[in-house]
Amino acid sequence: MKHDFSELKLDRVTRRFAGAGGKAFNALDELSLTVKRGEFIALLGPSGCGKSTALNCIAGLLGLSGGSIWLDDERLDTLPPEQRGFGMVFQNYALFPHMSVERNVGFGLRMRGASTAAIAPKVERALAMVQLAGQAHKLPGQLSGGQQQRVAIARAIVIEPPLVLMDEPLSNLDAKLRIETRAEIRRIHRELDRATIYVTHDQDEALSLADRIVVMKDGAVQQIAAPPEVYGQPANLAVARFMGYRNVLDLEVSGRDGGEVSLSGGGIALRGVAMQPIEGRRAAVAIRPEEFTVGAPEGANTIAGRVDNVEYSGRDALLDLVTASGTVLHVRGPVSIRRGDEVRVHVPPERVLVYRPD
Amino acid sequence: MAASADTYARPAFDRTLLLVVPAAVFMLLLFVYPFLYGLQLSFRPKEGGLLWNYIHFFTTDNLWPTIGITLKLALPATLINVGLALPIAYKMRVKTRYQRVVTTLLVVPITLGTVLIAEGMLLYFGPKGWLSHFLQLIHLYDGPIRLTHNYWGVLISLVISGFPFAFLLILSYITGIDPVLARAAATLGAGPGAQFRHIYLPLLAPGLAMCFCLAFVQAFSVFPSAVLLGAPAGPTRVISIAAYEAAFEQYDYSLASAIAMVMGFVQLVIVAAVLGMRRVFYRGPVSGGKG
Ligand SMILES: Nc1ncnc2c1ncn2[C@@H]1O[C@H](COP(=O)(O)OP(=O)(O)OP(=O)(O)O)[C@@H](O)[C@H]1O
Ligand SMILES: [Mg+2]
User: Fold this and answer.
1) What is the pLDDT of residues A260-282, one digit of tens each?
2) What would the DSSP string read from start to end of B116-169?
3) Which atom of ligand 1 is nearest to the CA of A53?
């Protein structure tokens, strides 16, 4: 267990489970990733994609079916969890129900043989960090879900581990506390100056916290990139869908010009940028609802339709636009628009991402 | 109390309480009535005053020592049972291929009666039994082996018949503890030993106390094996034998009732002491999750 390190390396880490009917499946499929000291990594993906599995493999709570884990040149995947010394915040907290908040937080320090005198101030500081100063003597059962979650965070960081693993640590907090704690986590990460791997299915959380995002689906890595890249240039259609590209249209390719592709189908004609090599006759375009401008004049990359549904969301509204051929588009537009209005929307070609269809 | 605020919120009568009636009647007929009957009977001795039976019990040389004799059997047997069941059940807590097989094997003695166990033990441990033959065959121990018709015979039989209960009870307590707690402890640096000491043991303590009480009460009322495998005239003359003799050899039901009352009181003292210790420990849900 060392605190000074320069990188954590995951080399084709794989975990198989016996699935339905005894057929094995890869819950985690060859995850390769190098985490530099000081980096904040977010594992992002839909429920069941293998995020917790990945975290458990790194922490040593699940054995690997293949691959290896290295902290600099020390091989870790053969060590039991207590010798890896990573701090972990569990998805369901896993607080010790028979120990007070204080003893829960101090547990890791006690296991490391620290003296009572050394433990007390550290525990106090950790509890203050997560705004639980007054709750030190309560049992976990006497805390609210959000408070329990913060105890779990305090318990993991108080041992100042080389790597902090967090499994959806904010899922039970209210919106305000979530944003506050998010900032707190980022600050703690900077202060510890180690590395953090943070699991979430909330893209906002991943975008705001991480230095790099690992997007996963069905156990396989889809993209590893910095937040702006994952947001603006998803590597494939699955990532695009997950990152909020709600409009995915399957269209026919009518022309190619370098990176630009012209597509048409169902009365819609669009030009966009190819995100992958497009070979076939059909392709999928992905567009975010907020990339559309409502009320554009007739021209290239415009689509006309009737508003079928209006979802008010404060600053603007989410409109369902139905074209003459029956295609439904999700568009952000002004709140003045009513159901039944005929509107024309425009999207610039550089915001129309073209992928191979899946 | 009567006019507390929530009296208004509650319906006048909770009809689900009616479900308790059969059990209550059952208890009344099969436990409370015989108990009260025995209690008053114990105060109506054949001769002498109100407390004659009790005075007689505590002043007669073949009666009062039975308490000590029984305790000397029941306490070690209970400690062995609980002490043995705990590590084995702890090992069995994770589902493995062998868990089922081992559990079944360990539990088989439950299905055998005490008498059957006694018979088997006589055959196996007796002076002409297999164990004795075997040991003499390999010249490990050539002297006579006396494991029946004495203290050890009864103790062994109490362990054989009492262990499965303790094991099953503890196993169910252990499997009720969320394994993610031990994993959390592991990430915080607790090795297997520390996980047991700091997580499992404190959470199990109330269950262990309960298990100890049940196993103790069961062992304390030992009768058949004390007669069949022990030396009922001397070293294993347990309290239930004294009660049996009073009732069915001297036909003194009043004295027998008094002995039964003494027996019940001793059990009560031990159980109360153990359950009292339970207060010290955490009692509550044994999971670390949301909720
Ligand atoms: N012990 C197990 N045995 C068999 N299959 C498992 C086991 N644990 C997880 N899985 C499967 O592995 C896949 C990934 O599970 P995992 O818990 O890693 O998902 P997740 O990404 O954390 O999801 P969520 O966001 O809902 O927590 C799922 O399909 C799950 O059913
Ligand atoms: Mg998970």
Assistant:
1) 999 998 888 999 999 998 888 89
2) HHHHHHHHHHSTTSHHHHHHHHTTS--SPP--SSSHHHHHHHHHHHHHHHHHHH
3) 18
Pair (B35, B177) in one structural domain: no
User: Residue B114 sits in a domain of what CATH number?
Assistant: 1.10.3720.10
Question: Which domain does B22 fall in, by range?
Answer: 1-42
Tell me, using a 6 A CB cutoff, whether residue A53 lines ligand 1.
yes
State how far the Cα of A150 lies from the Cα of A155, in Å rounded to an integer. Answer: 9
User: Could you tell me if B198 lies within 8 Å of chain A, comparing CB atoms?
Assistant: yes
Query: Rounded to whole angstroms, how far apart are CA atoms A168 and A52?
Result: 9
Q: Do B289 and A92 touch (CB under 8 A)?
A: yes
Cross-chain residue pair A97–B290, CB shorter than 8 Å: no
Q: Which residues of chain A are at the B interface, by a Cβ-Cβ cutoff of 8 Å?
A: 1, 59-61, 80-82, 84-88, 90, 92-98, 107-108, 111-112, 139-141, 145, 148, 155-156, 159, 172
Residue B269 counted as domain residue: yes
Domain contains B214 = yes
**Reported ipTM:** 0.82
Residue pLDDT, tens place only, A50-105: 999 999 999 999 999 999 999 988 899 899 998 988 999 998 889 999 999 999 99
Question: Are residues A327 and A268 in contact, defined by beta-carbon separation less than 8 angstroms?
Answer: yes
Domain annotation covers residue B289: no
Q: Domain check: are B38 and B57 in the same one?
A: no
Residues B112, B29: one domain?
no
Phi, psi of A40 (to 5 degrees): -115, 115
Q: Are residues B191 and B81 in the same domain?
A: yes
